[in-house]
Amino acid sequence: MKTHVLTGSRREIEESVARIDGIIHEVIVLVEEPRESESQNEDIFAEMAPYAVQAGGADYSRQTLYLAAEGE
Q1: Residue in 52, 28, 38, 31 with CA at minimum distance from that of residue 65
Q2: Which of 9, 31, 59, 60 gets the most CB atoms within 10 Å of its CB?
Q3: What does the alpha-carbon distance between residue 9 and residue 5 come to, in Å, rounded to a whole number?
Q4: Rounded to an integer, what distance in angstroms lies between the CA atom of residue 27 and that of residue 6?
Q5: Could you give the CA distance from residue 40 to residue 34 in angstroms, rounded to a whole number?
Q6: For 41-51, how does the pLDDT look when each residue is reduced to its tens digit (9 = 90+)?
Q7: Spatial distance between the Cα atoms of 28 and 47, rounded to a whole number of angstroms
Q8: Nearest-angstrom CA–CA distance, 16 and 61
Q9: Are the CB atoms for 59 and 66 separated by under 8 Å?
């Protein structure tokens, strides 16, 4: 099974999905909705947290994920 990350306009994503060979079992779609200014800092991935893999003792903070570790 392969993973594809498709970005672009709705039309571009539709065309990309149509070109994928094989059976598509599941799709996760992120839809940006107009929001009031006070709620724009909301974590859009929070609702997906129950489905995320969490290894014991690992630091999953954004700062740790995006900073290079020693020797990288």
Answers
A1: 52
A2: 60
A3: 13
A4: 10
A5: 9
A6: 677 778 888 88
A7: 12
A8: 32
A9: no
Phi, psi of 46 (to 5 degrees): -60, -40
How far is 9 from 13, CA to CA, in rounded Å? Answer: 6
Tokens of 32: 């940006």
Identify residue 9 by its one-letter amino acid code.
S
Tokens (6 digits) for 24 = 């598509």
Three-state SS letters, 22-46:
CCCCCCCCCCCCCCCHHHCCCCCCH
Which DSSP symbol is given to 59?
A: -
pLDDT tens track for 6-64:
999 899 999 999 999 989 888 888 888 776 655 556 777 788 888 877 777 778 788 88
DSSP secondary structure code for residue 11 in this structure: H
